[in-house]
From TrEMBL:
Pfam families: PK_Tyr_Ser-Thr (PF07714). GO terms for molecular function: protein kinase activity. It comes from the Eukaryota. Residues 1-63 form the Serine-threonine/tyrosine-protein kinase catalytic domain. This is Serine-threonine/tyrosine-protein kinase catalytic domain-containing protein.
Length: 67
């Protein structure tokens, strides 16, 4: 979702994948732009939940966010 809104690869400034993985494991995430509508900002944040059980299922994302 973040990539769709920002149109960039997350962590594109990293030279090594391991550095990126370490930051993700430490809870770091790309910055969500302030221009992102709150509805989508909240969805992106939910999709980044550490516990996979807390992430919204794809079917709910489709039904709630697409016409």
């Amino acid at each position: 979702m973040w990539e769709l809104y920002v149109r960039e690869h997350p962590f594109s400034g990293y030279d090594f994948v391991m550095d990126q993985e370490n930051d993700v494991l430490d809870g770091k995430r790309p910055v969500i732009p302030e221009s992102c509508p709150e509805k989508y900002s909240m969805l992106i944040t939910k999709c980044w939940a550490d516990d996979p059980a807390m992430r919204p299922p794809y079917s709910r994302i489709l039904s709630e966010h697409l016409p």
